[in-house]
Amino acid sequence: METSLLLAGGLLMVIGAGATMLLQSWAAFVFAPGALLFAVMQMRQTYEGTNFVVRRLRHIMLLSDVLFLLAALLMLANQHNFLGLSQLTYIKYVHNNWIVVLLVAAVLQLYTSHRIANELEKEAKKR
To answer: Any residues with CB less than 8 A from the CB of 83 and at least 6 apart, and which?
Structure first.
């Protein structure tokens, strides 16, 4: 069940980000719940082992989850300046910066997913 919810969240994030590139006004409202669902499901997963590398990678993965949520907030703020910022501050700090945050989160997620799989495989071979 959790895997299905994780995949659904990821799919909503992809649809929302793609629709934003196509200038759809509803895209942020699809991306944000997807990011929340994805992050929550990934945060519920645990690692009970003692491998320091996997523990460190899990912390990096949790950071990427927080960045996904920040990207969703910035995407919503990009469409609706609900933060009450002046126009200059909005353009300087918010306007389309969700893309940078999303890119960093995606790269971290890709890196940690690959490395955790390799580390767990190495750990299983040792046994």
So the answer is: 77, 90, 94
First and final CA of the chain: distance in angstroms? Answer: 29
Q: Which two tokens stand for residue 119?
A: 């580390």
* Cα torsion angle, 98, 104, 108, 111, sign: positive
pTM > 0.90: yes or no: no
- Under DSSP, the state recorded for 127 is -
- Side chain identity at residue 19, one-letter code: A
Q: What is the DSSP letter of 95?
A: T
CB atoms near residue 107 (< 10 Å): 12
Q: How confident is the model at residue 94 (pLDDT cuts 50, 70, 90)?
A: confident
28, two tokens: 């942020």
DSSP string of 41-84, one letter each residue: HHHH----S--HHHHHHHHHHHHHHHHHHHHHHHHHHHHS-TT-
